[in-house]
């Protein structure tokens, strides 16, 4: 009824069709990894190294928006001077970043 060449193509089509169907999914996963996961890992490593390198005299800002100067480092906590005679103890993880250096001192 069917020529021999059509029967051979019908038997091979599902095997190659399965691999071709997975290609877009693999491509989306690779793009997702490159655009979202890899930059997030780099950012997390940068923040962790900043937390470990905190030392007395560093001007920082916390996640809560408190600006201050580090006056002591004790394990997982730091002592932060926010005003004359006012010191706070905060977790290292509460530090959002270092204050940007400004051109003028206030």
Q: What is the number of domains?
A: 2
- Pick out the low-confidence regions: none
Strand order of the largest sheet: 4-3-2-1-5
User: How much strand content do the residues show?
Assistant: 25-35%
Distance between the termini: 93 Å
Order of helices and strands: HEEEEE
Largest sheet: 5 strands, antiparallel
Quaternary: single chain
The helix fraction, in percent, is 40-55%
* Rg over alpha carbons: 28 Å
Can you characterise this structure?
By secondary structure, the chain is α+β, with helices and mostly antiparallel strands. It has two domains: 1-53; 54-98, SH3 type barrels (Roll), CATH 2.30.30. Helix content is 46%, strand content 27%. The chain has one helix and five strands. It has one helix at residues 4-52; strands at residues 59-62, 67-74, 77-83, 86-91, 95-98. Strand 3 and strand 4 form a beta hairpin. The longest helix is centred in the first third of the chain and has 49 residues, at 4-52. The chain is rod-shaped. The mean pLDDT is 86.
């Amino acid at each position: 009824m069917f020529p021999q060449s059509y029967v051979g193509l019908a038997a091979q089509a599902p095997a190659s069709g399965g691999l071709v169907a997975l290609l877009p999914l693999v491509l989306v996963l690779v793009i997702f990894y490159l655009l979202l996961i890899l930059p997030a890992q780099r950012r997390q490593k940068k923040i962790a190294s900043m937390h470990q390198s905190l030392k007395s005299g560093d001007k920082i800002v916390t996640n809560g928006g408190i600006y201050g100067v580090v006056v002591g480092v004790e394990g997982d906590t730091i002592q932060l001077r926010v005003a004359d005679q006012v010191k706070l103890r905060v977790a290292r993880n509460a530090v959002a970043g270092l204050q940007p250096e400004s051109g003028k001192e206030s």
